Amino acid sequence: MEFGNLIDGKQISASIRLSVKEDVERLVSQGHRAPCLAVILVGERVDSQTYVRNKKKTAADLGIQSIDKVLPESATQQQVIDIVRSFNNDKDIDGILVQLPLPSHINEEAVLNEIDIAKDVDGFHPINIGKLSMRGRKPEFEPCTPKGCIELIDRSGISIQGKNAVVLGRSNIVGLPVAMMLMNRDATVTICHSKTKDLKEKCREADILVVAIGQTKLVKKDWIKPGAVVIDVGMNTDENGKLCGDVDFNECKQVAGHITPVPGGVGPMTIAMLMKNTLTSAQKKFCN
Amino acid sequence: MEFGNLIDGKQISASIRLSVKEDVERLVSQGHRAPCLAVILVGERVDSQTYVRNKKKTAADLGIQSIDKVLPESATQQQVIDIVRSFNNDKDIDGILVQLPLPSHINEEAVLNEIDIAKDVDGFHPINIGKLSMRGRKPEFEPCTPKGCIELIDRSGISIQGKNAVVLGRSNIVGLPVAMMLMNRDATVTICHSKTKDLKEKCREADILVVAIGQTKLVKKDWIKPGAVVIDVGMNTDENGKLCGDVDFNECKQVAGHITPVPGGVGPMTIAMLMKNTLTSAQKKFCN
Ligand SMILES: NC(=O)C1=CN([C@@H]2O[C@H](COP(=O)(O)OP(=O)(O)OC[C@H]3O[C@@H](n4cnc5c(N)ncnc54)[C@H](OP(=O)(O)O)[C@@H]3O)[C@@H](O)[C@H]2O)C=CC1
Ligand SMILES: NC(=O)C1=CN([C@@H]2O[C@H](COP(=O)(O)OP(=O)(O)OC[C@H]3O[C@@H](n4cnc5c(N)ncnc54)[C@H](OP(=O)(O)O)[C@@H]3O)[C@@H](O)[C@H]2O)C=CC1
Questions:
Q1: Is residue A122 part of a domain?
Q2: Domain Tetrahydrofolate dehydrogenase/cyclohydrolase catalytic, which positions (chains A, B) (predicted)?
């Protein structure tokens, strides 16, 4: 049995970005316009501003156009919806992303439901989640972070079919969709959350363990089945203010077969998948 | 520990039908029209004809109006879609049900997607499945058979929160939605299917076991954790041509805490829930 193989999200995401860049260049050389991502940011949260800046920078690096619309904290729900609608109607926009969280006076569900599902590159629309979950259906887009988790597993040469997969967390943006994707890849999936009893025992049964709970280094060495694949989605800060995951990496890498670090694991995959979804959206449009 | 308590679907569904009947009478006495269910049947499958006849009969018993539209096997997809659309536009119809399976030349997904989600009393539209699965979202309707399973558990006084629930089967109409409903009721859910290894071991961990695989009496006594709740959705015929479930009832009732028989378990709940969804649809309309 192999232990402690690092799943290098930095390297894997770099190779995905490179192939997206090449595909964008090909589209443009065929006479099409560059794919275009529109980002809506409401308010002045520093973390949200950082995310949006990173998305714009990555888009620019790959030749993807990006538009951003920044609204003040005081913006009304209707104003946000009006912008979503105008982006829906703009045929030169391929992807629409509303940076979450929105200010508390705005109903996120009402806003997200407005996004044209053909431009829902975040994959959060309920119809996309429904199709992602159902047998024989295909969503327009798979949500970016879950899709990134699956890519990390695939590109590490690990097969999913028939494996016991345990997902910690059931949020709409990570836990639930990643569980559905693992199920549709024929894993036997167990979904755990804050009401789960014997979390450690559940984890010990996992051949593939995906952790997305937002709890600093909760998952310890003796929670891991020897040789298991551990994907850590968590992005927390440790006691020294450093970015860390939900998994105690230094301990767990001694037991896991393959493991993602934080930073440098799932994190860089999310933006890479967003770029890929935006490209795919443009390709679908140009090829129809 | 208690053993072998029968969960009596016949009795529970009768009490649900009675309360639906009373609610229909109240609506009508308030001057509203009776709720109305429209059923579309394509082709001459004997089993489908039986289902449709039973639905009509139950509706009549409860004071719910039903319309049925029978099309020949040779009907085109467009003809079926046109009827769905005319029912969507008919404000006197509260629920639309397309009897499955459709003839193989018709794309089921294309037809089901046409049903107005406010009339999707079967709850099979992807947007309903998406909302059923997501945190903080509510579908217009919960699918009838899964909803029936949950009712059986609830009305037997069994709490779901924190329990280990194992679902055998992941179909769009039973396994997947029942798993999502158990998860949203705070069970820790494991979804098993034909690619699952060690099915027996998985079942033995279940406090609540829901079986929907269509395999005659596959689940045996030594698959059941003593005291577990066993919900058998299967409808198969045994070697003597008699209706039977996916669970070997005579064996398993010796170990299970609570168990549904077949017939007389989940079966009668499905139609009761369909009637309840149709009533709910009418109530929503009249109260807005
Ligand atoms: N790498 C990336 O690009 C991304 C990283 N993240 C990170 O992933 C983590 C999860 O994010 P997100 O899904 O949005 O978080 P949410 O807060 O929306 O969901 C957390 C989930 O974890 C469960 N949970 C919380 N505490 C425990 C516990 N002690 N034991 C078991 N389950 C628990 C919750 O259960 P319950 O449902 O019962 O409340 C919930 O389902 C965060 O650290 C976040 O920063 C998120 C998105 C992208
Ligand atoms: N009481 C009622 O009102 C209703 C009863 N039913 C009955 O419920 C049963 C299931 O129906 P439905 O969900 O439509 O069936 P499907 O055939 O659509 O799905 C069957 C599911 O069971 C899985 N499965 C099949 N064989 C095995 C096995 N040996 N071990 C583990 N998993 C297995 C399949 O796995 P995979 O996905 O890998 O193929 C699939 O997910 C049937 O008997 C049906 O008649 C259905 C609807 C209503």
A1: no
A2: 7-122
Taking 80 as the threshold, does the pLDDT of residue A288 lie above it? Answer: no
* DSSP labels, chain A: ----EE--HHHHHHHHHHHHHHHHHHHHHTTPPPPEEEEEEES--HHHHHHHHHHHHHHHHHT-EEEEEEE-TT--HHHHHHHHHHHHH-TT--EEEEPSSPPTTS-HHHHHTTS-GGG-TT--SHHHHHHHHSTT---SS--HHHHHHHHHHHTTT---TT-EEEEE---TTTHHHHHHHHHHTT-EEEEE-TT-S-HHHHHHT-SEEEE-S--TT-B-GGGS-TT-EEEE---EE-TTS-EE-SB-HHHHTTT-SEE--SSSSSHHHHHHHHHHHHHHHHHHHHT-
Q: What is the DSSP letter of B96?
A: E
Please give the tally of structural domains in chain A: 2
**Structure confidence by residue, pLDDT tens digits, A86-114:** 999 999 999 999 999 999 999 999 999 99
Q: Under 8 Å CB-to-CB from B262, ≥6 apart: which residues? A: B232, B234, B235, B243, B244, B245, B247, B249
- For residue A227, pLDDT over 80 is answered with yes
Task: Record the tokens describing residue A231, joined without a space.
Answer: 């994907």
Cis preceding-peptide flag for B263 (omega within 30 of 0):
yes
Domain CATH for B210: 3.40.50.720
Task: Give the nearest ligand 1 atom to A170 CA.
Answer: 41
Residue A206 resides in a domain: yes
Q: Is residue A196 part of a domain?
A: yes
For A165, the closest chain B residue by CA position comes to B190
- Identify residue B230 by its one-letter amino acid code: V
Is residue B17 one of the residues assigned to a domain?
Answer: no
List CB contacts (< 8 A) between A129 and chain B: 130, 133-134
Q: What is the pLDDT of residue A3?
A: 81
Read off the pLDDT of each residue in A45-54 and give the average, rounded to a whole number: 94
Q: Which residue has its alpha carbon closest to ligand 1 atom 21?
A: A169
Grade residue B211 by pLDDT with cuts at 50, 70 and 90. very high
Give the Å distances, CA to CA, from B158 to A97, B150, B207, B221, B255: 42, 10, 10, 21, 17
What is the pLDDT at residue A4? Answer: 84
Interface test with A, best of B102, B117, B134, B174 (most A CBs within 10 A): B134
For residue range A136-157, list pLDDT tens digits in order.
999 999 999 999 999 999 999 9
CATH number for the domain harbouring residue A39: 3.40.50.10860
- Closest Cβ–Cβ partner in A127, A189, A196 for B127: A127
